[in-house]
Amino acid sequence: MAHSYSRHYLHIVFGTKYRQKIIQPGDMELRLHKYIARVINNKYGFAHCVNGTSDHVHILMDIKTAYSTASMVRDVKAYSSGWINRTFNLPTLFRWQTGYGVFSVGYKDLAQVSRYIERQKIHHQCWKFESEYTGLLQEHAITFQESDLWK
Description:
By secondary structure, the chain is α+β, with helices and mostly antiparallel strands. The protein has one domain (about 10-150): Alpha-Beta Plaits (2-Layer Sandwich), CATH 3.30.70. Helix content is about 40%, strand content about 20%. The chain is built from 5 helices and 4 strands. A 4-stranded antiparallel beta sheet has the order 2-3-1-4, with helices on both faces. Helix 1 runs antiparallel to helix 2. The termini are far apart.
C-alpha cells in the first residue's frame, strides 16, 4: 500500500485539581472551551466538541498520527491552565488534575458522543462528576483505584 490512512477519534476527560469548582459559567467557560479547541486545531488535529462544567472538561477530537495522546493532553492542559491564570483574576492558582481519561470513539458513535458532551449541564443536574468519570472508566473496562482518581 502506497499511503497510510488513519483516523483516531478520542473522547478526553480531565478535571480541575482537587475537583475545585473554579471554571465560572458564562464568559470564562466559553472562552476556555474555545481556547482548548484552538490549541487542538492549530497543532494536534480537530476538536469536534469541547464542553464541561465548573470542575471538568470533555473533548471530542480526532488526533493526527504524528502526536501521542499523552503529549497532546499534557500540552492542552499546560497551555490552557497558563492562559486561565494570565487571563482571569482568580482567588487561587488554576491547575488541572494530574491525570485524564481517554476513550476511543468509533465513527458511527461521533454524533452520540458529541450530544453527550454538548449536554453536560443537563447531565450534571443528576450526576456528579465522580460518578460520571468512574462510569466511563467501567464502561470501557479500565481498571482503576478510586484513591488515585482525584489527585
